[in-house]
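Hey L., structure's done. Input below.
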Amino acid sequence: MSLRVIAVSAPEYPEGRVGSKTLNSRDPASLYNACRYAAFLAESGLGAWGDSNWCGSRLDRRGKMLLMHSLKEELSCFEQLLARERPNLLLIGAMSLCMPGAIECAKVAKQMFGDEICVVLGGRHVNETIFLEKRGRVVSHHNGSPLKLMAEGAIDRAFDVVVSGEGEFVIAKLGELVSNLSDKGESLQRLLSFCSDELAEVPGVWIAGSVNGDQITTITSSGKRIDRDKLPSPAMMFGVATSFDIFGGRLTGHAFSDTGPGCVYNCTFCSEASSVCGGIVQAETSASRLFRQLVDIDAVICQDSPGCKSSAFVEDSIILAGLPSQLQFLLELLRSRSLDIRFGGQLTIDLALKRMELLAELNAVGMDYLFLGLETLRPDKIGGMSKDTRKSGWLERAETLVAELSDRRIRVGFSLLHGLGEKQQDRLELMEVFKSWRTKYGAPQVLSFNWAVQHPLRGQDGDCGYDYTQWGDEEYLRAFRDYGEASNRYPLAGVVLPTLRELEELAIARQQL
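Output:
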């Protein structure tokens, strides 16, 4: 077996457990997406992957992956996985706040296996820090680019290859190349220099890079588009292990329409903004892809967990980009096949109001949960939001939506994003608004709290230029424990950090909710 692979989602915290009020999943959905084509090759017995440690069952493959939250608490699990599998290819996925954890994981792997392991880093942080200049083929590096940091000696050279962009086919190819080089006894650390011409034709829009001495070498894809209609479902490749409370004890799979990694809107604070992630692709068949994933999730749960019922959360930034034609087609597909599955997804307030009758029809065939962003009471006070399309009555429209969804028995979740420049009184006032809505409508059923982090955003970061190599301060890490994403080290440009007293005041208000 010349290819032995493990994949890890890097931890966000140096120590401590995830907060009890934090929304989280046992399934590393982004990692599953990135690795699904490689898993398909393994399951099909094709090439190097077909003779790798991934060629067993879904459950076997899950055992080669690790979702980490805390470095200190889960480091021993990571070390045990390394010792058991003895990989020659380690795949690490990381968001920006996970970069210190990714660096530490890579260092541990190198300490254990040295030049016998090739460490590959990818994920949203890399996507936002290594990118092509607009209208050009020149690769740019943000201050937080792992390649730039390694070349300058700011971090250990523990990453052999760094991949920005669409990784499904790149990962599969890198596995083949690692297998070939291992068979020949060649150095895995010179992977890119051995295979630049061969790698460049791999489908997808991506950049792969490595560091030699103080020089950065990058390979840019030829731009051959991935046919998303032919991508396998992550659930079929890796199974389903999580259960979201909102679905009443049903196992919950992560579903995608694969229309792209971003949102149709362009809110400046958001890492999913269209100017950062790009536009929608293959929208005309997106409903068919999503329906197939829902069918697959239901089938996998029936096969792997007899007696359990199925549910799914659609991870699109906006479900099917909010396109009425695709939502209508999804409705028709669900009506054509009787599935005992409940599902939810994300919409904006204005889109949900526009699609209300269609949402009511979708509710009849399984869609009984909507997750929405209500970042602030007054968008104009924070510079506005692209998704606030009517520019007046934001809070009134949100309440109208809660009332209408409640009447139709569609459950509601809200994501709150503090730290956009609002005042503390505005934050507390929003908590009171939610209290009143729960009294009047029994909703929202779910509240998720986040504190705005300045992401690299391909340089659209207000000249902050953070390098993302450090954890947050200990007292703030404790205060932010029940937030989904938060950091005192990386606030939005021009935004003053909250005091610990203000965070304590907000914690008391959350407890009352």
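The chain has 18 helices and 15 strands. The two ends are 54 Å apart (CA to CA).

-- N.
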